[in-house]
Amino acid sequence: MANLTLMSGRGEAEGYDPEVVRARYRAERDKRLVAGRADIRDLAEDAHFGAFRLDPFTPVAARDPQRDDVEVVIVGGGMAGILAGVQLRQAGIEQIRIVDQAGGLGGTWYWNRYPGVMCDVESYIYLPMLEELGYVPTSRYASGEEIRLHLQAIGDRFDLEANALFHTGVTRAAWDDRAARWRITTDRGDAFTTRYYVLAVGILNLMKLPAIAGMEQFQGQSFHTARWDYARTGGGPGEPLDDLGDKVVGLIGTGASGIQCLAPLAEAAQAVYVFQRTPSAVGVRGNRPTATEFAEARWPGWQQARMDNFQAVMLGQPVEADLTDDGWTRHYAAVHHPPRWKGMTLEEYLRNGEEVDYGIMEEHRRRVAEVVTDPVTAETLKPYYRYLCKRPCFHDEYLEAFNRANVTLVDCPAGIDRISEGGPVVNGETYDVDLLIYGTGFEAELTPLFRRAGHDIIGRGGVSLAEKWAPGATSLFGMMSRGFPNLFMMPAPGQQAVVTVSYTQLAVLGAQFIGGAVGILEQSGVRVFDVRAEAEEAWSQKIVDSFVDGSAVMSACTPSRINQEGNPQSLNPRNGNYGRGYGDYFGYRELLEQWLQRGDCEGLELEVGPVAR
Ligand code: NAP
User: How high is the pLDDT of residue 549?
Assistant: First the structure.
């Protein structure tokens, strides 16, 4: 096995031959690059599987339709919507209405309650507003339930639920110039108006159900990990799944969700078949309870400082100490920003980066060999691609689960042949299962906002956001768009903002901007704002100019949602970020803060005047 010294940042892997490695990675990629691999069912239209979207957690309560006028409507009650609500509340807005299809607050943490669900980003930076709420997470990586309850606590503190409409999907939002309001209709018969409209719809909010031949024929039970049905499995989050003792379970998908739910499934079920198309790189998680010393040693501003430290490390910037010090900062950051020393040519830089990457992937492959006792299973679980080709995972019980007699790995790099009445068929063999669980993820983060929003957003002149953004995003700061007055979009990937590994950091930034901007607009007596054409064009041009075409590197990758399932050339420069690559987070933040400090609403057209009530 190759050895690597990462301390110096120089790839020094013994016996490393880039050509051999590239050929192996290519061969593995080609096994997976098959026609139809990305075909999915559109659950919004799907008569057979549409019910997969229903809420198994909260019964839908009858209510009368709303026909009123509020100051702000926020679509989405997840972290983004909650943080936007907090900032708007602090800007003096009294009437805030969150609208969400879920039965309560929490967004992704409302829906994803599968056994073992947790966030693999450190809790001390992922859970927002820890200082404000005086809360210290119980462990280094928090469970989904702990995160959901924390988000709920924020919602309670800032009274974001009283006026909320849950189990409600917006069907249309249209700007009415005469009334200077957005007119909103919903699938619950509501028809209300609002002065400001905030889209906080989420980035991984659309469940992805693959289109596999014959899947309607399956006679057993099935659901998606984002709608775990405890009525069928028994138990609850954090509790044993006590109805599975005599059941054979099939788990499709070995991404972040699949790997987190395997161990509890394996403990409870008679047998589990894990259908793996591509192995994840599963790094060490190293969870541990929060130390008393840590809980006691906090000082004002500690959380923001810790978030900034994480962000700096992830962007390859020098820090005194890596406070998070986990797989994200040690592996992801190292691969994303390999060192560049004086006199190094571009070719040397790229070659060294490739070797550093190889060393880290070897470490992951070695871990599999050390943990998994059956050599064939171990070999099948080894990831052969560059580290950034797929979102990395971190877990300490996933690989171990394959040492259990009741867990079988089914290798299907080209996908499942079909699903029969009994269960999935791979290489002609049927795997009979009682319960089939789709851990098949979500439509990619780059899914256009208008699709993620799931409703028509009609601006001035009857032009929809979908029409305007059909050639690519166009905005000011990734948060406002001309022709859509009094509308804010929480920043997200593919939307002319920046991308952060810990979404919380981006949500905090977006919420602070939106709250601050509304505060300024209100104080200035502004009735309507819109983006100036030249300001939007300048911002969009900045995004296009800094676009880095990574398609050559990404097309060598195993297909994944990160490279558009093997089509990286389909990335549109207009959907890029502020700054190169994932974007210049600190530069973006400074720019937004300065805009707020100046308070002159640069780049906006303002219509001042009384607001009709
Ligand atoms: P995912 O990473 O997209 O994984 C989906 C899995 O389903 C993959 O293993 C995929 O195989 C497999 N799959 C899809 N279509 C298939 C088909 N037709 N046949 C066989 N297998 C198929 O989804 P996820 O695990 O739900 O995670 C999604 C995202 O949610 C993560 O990337 C992350 O951003 C977020 N998340 C975060 C955490 C956290 O701890 N922070 C936890 C869970 C989720 P291929 O790999 O071959 O495509």
Answer: 85
Q: Which pLDDT score is estimated for 13?
A: 64
Confidence at residue 3, expressed as pLDDT on a 0 to 100 scale: 37
Domains and CATH numbers, the chain: 2-21+292-349 (no CATH), 33-62+207-280+391-441 (3.50.50.60), 69-105+160-205+444-608 (3.50.50.60)
Question: What is the reported pLDDT for 12?
Answer: 57
The verdict on pTM exceeding 0.70 is yes
- Residues having CB within 6 Å of any atom of ligand 1: 32, 118-121, 204, 210, 212, 252-258, 260, 275, 277-278, 391, 415-416, 439-442, 560-561
Residue owning the nearest CA to atom 14 of ligand 1 = 440
Task: Give pLDDT, residue 283.
Answer: 98
Q: Which residues of the chain are under the pLDDT cut of 50?
A: 1-8
For 255-277, the pLDDT digits (tens) are 999 999 999 999 999 999 999 99
> Of ligand 1's atoms, which has the minimum distance to the CA of residue 32?
47
DSSP string over 259-304? HHHHHHHHHHSSEEEEEESS---EE-----BPPHHHHHT--TTHHH
Distance CA 611, CA 613 (A): 6
Range 238-245, long-range pairs (CB < 8 A, 24+ positions)? 238/115, 238/143, 238/145, 240/264, 240/267, 240/268, 241/115, 241/265, 241/267, 241/268, 241/269, 242/268, 244/268, 244/269, 244/270, 244/435, 245/269, 245/270
Mutating to test ligand 1, I would choose from 440, 500, 562, 563 the residue with most ligand atoms within 8 A of its C-beta, which is 440
8 A C-beta contact, residue 445 and residue 494:
yes
pLDDT tens readout for residues 583-596: 999 999 999 999 99
- Quick one: pLDDT at residue 566? 87
For 504, half-sphere exposure in the C-beta direction (CA atoms, 13 angstrom radius) is: 24
Ligand 1 mutation pick, 257, 275, 276, 446, max ligand atoms within 8 A of CB: 257
